[in-house]
Amino acid sequence: MKRAAAGTSLGLAIGDAMGYPTEFLGVQQITAKYGHWRTMDLPVSSGRAYVTDDTQMTLALGEGLIEALASGPLTADGMVPPVRDRFVEWWRSPENDRAPGMTCLRACEKLSEGGPWQAASQIGSKGCGANMRVAPVALVPGLDQRHRSAAAQLQAALTHGHPTALAASDLTAHAVLLLAQGIDLPDLLPALRAHAAASCTTYHADWLGDLAEHAQDPDRAAYIARGWDDCLAVLDRLEAALAAPDLEADPCLATGEGWIAEEALATGLYCFLLLPGDPPAVVRRAACSSGDSDSIAALAGAFAGAYHGADAWPDEWTKPIEYRERLLRLAAAWDI
Question: Rounded to two decimals, what is the model's pTM?
Answer without folding.
Answer: 0.98
